[in-house]
Amino acid sequence: MNKITILMAVFIAVPLAAMAQFNSSEGRGVPVDKVADALKAPDETAVVLTGNIVERIRSETYRFSDGTGEIRLDIGEEIWAGVAAGPQTQVRIVGETDRGLGGMDIWVHSVETVGSADDAD
Question: Of 82, 88, 91, which Cα lies nearest the Cα of 73?
C-alpha cells in the first residue's frame, strides 16, 4: 500500500514540477510596436508595426519604415489577401521578428491598410 501511495505522489509531482518551470510569457509579452525596438528584440518576438512599405526588394521581401528605423519584411503572396498598398499607404503589420544570418527581418502574418479610404490611394 505504501508503494502505491509513493508512486501516485511521484506521478502527480513530476508534471507539476515541469509546469512550474514553463514561462509562456518569456519574450512574448506586449507586442513590439516600433521598428527601433524590433531591431533589438529577441528572435520570434511579436510585433505590431504601423508605417509604410517603402520598397519591394525582391519577390516576397520589402523594406518598411515607421519613422524610428527601417526593417525588412517577409510577406508571402497569400498574406496580401487583396490588400493594395503603395509607398504612401500607411499599413499595420502583424508578425514576429526573425533573426538570421542576414540580420533582422519581420515574418509577416497579416498586413492591412490603416486610416481612411482616401489614404489608400
Answer: 91
Q: How far apart are CA 76 and CA 60, in angstroms?
A: 6
Radius of gyration of the chain (CA): 21
Write down the domain spans for the chain: 29-120
Picking from 88, 55, 80, the residue whose alpha carbon sits closest to that of residue 70 is 55
Cell of 109: 502574418
Question: What is the per-residue DSSP string for 31-96?
Answer: PB-SHHHHTTSPTT-EEEEEEEEEEEEETTEEEEE-SS-EEEEE--HHHHTT----TTSEEEEEEE
Dig out the grid coordinates for 30 from the structure: 506586449
What span, in angstroms and rounded, lies between the C-alpha atoms of 65 and 55?
10
Question: How much is the pTM?
Answer: 0.71
pLDDT in tens, 25-56: 444 568 999 999 999 999 999 999 999 999 99
| CATH number for the domain running over 29-120 | 2.40.50.200
pLDDT score for 43: 94
